[in-house]
Amino acid sequence: MSTIQSFDQLEKTREKLRASVKKDLPSVLICFGTGCQANGARDVAKAFGEEIEKQGLSVNVNIGLKTTGCHGYCENGPLVVLRPQDILYLRVKPKDVAEIVEKTIKGGAVIDRLIYKDVNTKETIAQYHSIPFYSYQKRIALRNIGTIDPTSIDDYIIQDGYKGLAKALTMDPEAIIKEIEASGLRGRGGGGFPAGRKWRSCKAVPSDVRYVMCNGDEGDPGAFMDRSIMEGDPHSVIEGMIIGGYAVGAHQGYMYVRDEYPLAVKNLQAALIAARGMGFLGKNILGSKFDFDIKVSRGGGAFVCGESSALMRSLEGKVGEPRAKYIRSVEKGLYDKPSVLNNVETWNNVPVIIQNGSSWYAGFGTEKSKGTKVFSLVGKVNNTGLVEVPMGITIRDLVEKIGGGVLDGKAFKAVQTGGPSGGCIPKELADLPIDFDSLTEAGSMMGSGGIIVMDENTCMVDVAKYFIGFLVEESCGKCAPCRDGLPRMYSILNDITEGKGKESDIETLMELCDVLSYGALCGLGTSSANPVLSTLRYFKDEYMVHIRDKKCPAGVCKALITYRIDAKACTGCTLCAKKCPQECITGEKKKLHVIDESKCIRCGVCKDVCNFNAVNIE
Amino acid sequence: MAVDKKAIDAIIAKYDQSEESLLAILQDFQREFRYVPEEGMKRLGEVLNVSESKIYAMGTFYKALSLEPRGKHTVKVCMGTACHLKGAGQILETIERDFSVKRNHTTKDMQFTVECVNCVGACAMAPVVVVDEDYSGHTRPSKVTDLLKKYK
User: Fold this and answer.
1) Which residues neighbour A335 within 8 Å (Cβ) at sequence distance 6 or greater?
2) Which residues contact A457 (CB under 8 A, 6 or more apart)?
3) Does B17 touch chain A if contact means CB atoms closer than 8 Å?
4) What are the pLDDT digits (tens) for A452-485?
5) Distance between CA A254 and CA A311 in Å, rounded?
């Protein structure tokens, strides 16, 4: 294919592509995100292909069949969307496919057992956009995901793809930066630094070479929006980076993607080839005399490489250790040249901001946190998955309206945000608006947008220990506060969870937190005390119960709990005794079983296998 | 374990001969040989004109790289926050117990290397275990052993 050489030519191509799509064709969209693929989406897609032919229809003539990126409602995959009716079927199995083609596609009827059913109200809803999980969302970053086939650049162009780039190339670079500044776009990776200001600072440094980079090293546990965007809409990130490159005067871009995301790497690489083929990358882009290209680098499985200076070292082919930032990376970044590093979601927002204007974007969100944000709502909540909402939504609305409340009707306890650099926000603050500044004030942070819901069975000391343990593993070891301080904190927390805590431990923990906050070298180190600080701030009582009473109220800390079989509920089915790895459960058939506490290792297998809820934790 | 020199050179030849390609080449070694062989690091140092100590530092720093041969199958137990809350610890302990293997080590029969990873980004299906490229969501201590046995 010859490259597109002008704005007009792009619009003509778009028209032509749109005309080639048959509008009235019913279409089947199958989610091919990691979650749905794990649940068997590939087999479902195959079954659709075969069944359509078998029933005397033909793909592309009678029915459009497409695999898309992640719809976000991963809990209920594989997801299948039927258009034009806008029906969403959940947990579709290959054996359901024949019925779907027969009844829904041919007959227009809804199959009740496959549609959404609200766990609380038992109400059923067939229409995709009427389901609460989707109806409260405002999708800007996720605009194309679930609609387009990520491996097709044509699909992206049909959805106004590369329109923002075409417009940007007619603008003065200074005007683009002004537009991004006016939109109020702040970095989506965690810190929330204004993107426009970052670009301006980079441009202000005199240099013949500059770089733009995309941080796709999404390391925060509990966050997967960047993975979804890279997998489901790779061109949006590429387009944003080209615009950024043009605005700051860079000709080379780098994408640094986590090694754990093979599908993202594959889709990005394919998208780069397609974009080069059409002339969106390479020399003289759209006839503008602007040259730009992008390389993809895979990360090496080191959390610290999500930190900007470590990421750049890693891109250069070195060990990814951070450096002290006396000089910022906008001045001396990659190869000591002025560089702009933004997160995946930040880049993905850029094309639509240019296309629709900064005031449109600034119309969403709060005064200081503009636009929308993608959150991954996970943990002990009914509807888990990716959601995009305007900034400023309250924790309560997110958990209850979109999330459908806490799992199994348990009591809501807290949300954890911001990954290992963030903290826990208790239920008392459920009406806190979620934006950059409110979260920071509450002792947590936005981070990349992971929202982990915790219920009454979550132990906050264990959570703090979990995060500190994570950071001990991931500390690069360069500076002493992080390398030595974190293991000290871990051993204290471990003692507390084992019933060996002392009251003076709290004070020692606070001191260590101070040392880390002030003394660590990089952003990950200085924020690493947050999990402990925030749990101590809101859940000190729980620490004290562990220390004074040697009890874990949530029933998590192994040394402080015992498993017991409920005499009323036990039916004597013998299953737990058979499965117990310690062989420490005894009892005759149809009679009460008993756990020998002296041998029990609290592995939880008996509770897991019991069909009668007869095993309790005390 | 003898490593095919031609295979090493073939991997190196796929990339730009610059330091920038170091990590990518080491990752390809890992994929091809299931570890980063000493011969590979030596050869890479010669071709890219980078000191061996530097390459060794990369090999020990990045978690995705291993200097010892790994098992036929890689079992990644996700230790992300969502998985942790939903019982990933118990899943890992079950694997350790039933396959007599410690975390981040390989079983004696070289079948499985058990790794703890910090979030595979499939939190909605927590707890998650990834065997090679296959994701299994909503795993339970009572089911995970049978799941792995299928790969033997």
Assistant:
1) A209, A211, A316
2) A380, A410, A554, A555, A556
3) no
4) 999 999 999 999 999 999 999 889 888 999 999 9
5) 11
Contacts of A319 in chain B (CB under 8 A): 57-58, 61
B87 interaction partners in chain A (CB closer than 8 Å): 604
Contacts of A44-47 with CB under 8 Å at 24 or more apart are A44/A78, A44/A80, A44/A92, A44/A93, A44/A94, A44/A97, A46/A94, A47/A94, A47/A97, A47/A98
B-interface mutation test, from A470, A558, A607, A610, most B Cβ less than 10 A away: A470
pLDDT at res. B54? 93
A423-426 vs A385-390, strand pairing mode: unpaired
Convert B127-139 to b/e letters by CB count within 10 Å (16 or more is b).
bbbbbeeebbbeb
* B32-58 exposure pattern, b = at least 16 Cβ within 10 A, e = fewer: bbbbbbeebbebbbeebebeeebbeeb
Nearest-CA residue of chain A relative to B130?
A: A38
Among chain B residues, CA nearest to A37: B135
> Which amino acid would we find at residue A457?
N
Which residues contact residue A571 at a Cβ distance below 8 angstroms, ignoring those fewer than 6 apart? Answer: A590, A612, A614
Question: DSSP label at A106?
Answer: I
Q: Do B142 and A314 touch (CB under 8 A)?
A: no
Cβ-nearest to B62 among A224, A301, A458: A301
A209: left (phi over 0), alpha (psi -120 to 50) or beta: beta
Establish if A219 touches chain B: CB-CB under 8 angstroms.
yes
Candidate from B54, B57, B140 with C-beta closest to A608: B140
Note whether A278 and A159 are within 8 A (CB). Answer: no
Q: ipTM beyond 0.95?
A: no
**Residue of B119, B134, B147 to mutate, interface with A, max A Cβ within 10 Å:** B119
Percent pLDDT > 70 in chain A is: 100
Distance between CA atoms of A561 and A71, rounded to whole angstroms?
40
8 Å CB contact between A172 and A198: no
Rounded CA separation A414/A393 (Å): 16
Residue with structure tokens 């002990």?
A380
Alpha helix locations (H) across A376-503? 395-396, 436-441, 460-474, 480, 486-497
Cβ pair A213, A334 in contact under 8 A? yes
Query: Alpha-carbon distance A242 to A375, whole Å?
Result: 25
Extended strands (E) in A86-157: 87-89, 116-117, 124-125
CA distance A496 to A463: 12
Peptide linkage before A78 cis (omega within 30 of 0): yes
Inspect the interface and report whether the beta carbons of B137 and A35 lie closer than 8 Å.
yes
Q: Is B68 helix (H, G, I), strand (E, B) or coil?
A: coil
Mean pLDDT of A448-453: 91
Contact A424, A539 (CB under 8 A): yes
Phi, psi of A31 (to 5 degrees): -70, 130
Is residue A194 within 8 A of residue A358, CB to CB? The reply is no
Beta carbons of B55 and B45 less than 8 angstroms apart: yes
Residues 6+ apart with CB under 8 A from A278: A1, A3, A4, A153
Tokens of A327: 């000089």
- Give A244-277 pLDDT, tens digit per residue: 999 999 999 999 999 888 889 999 999 999 999 9
pLDDT digits (tens, 9 = 90+) for A558-602: 999 999 999 999 999 999 999 898 899 999 999 999 999 899 989
Query: Which residues of A are less than 8 Å from B30 in CB distance?
Result: none
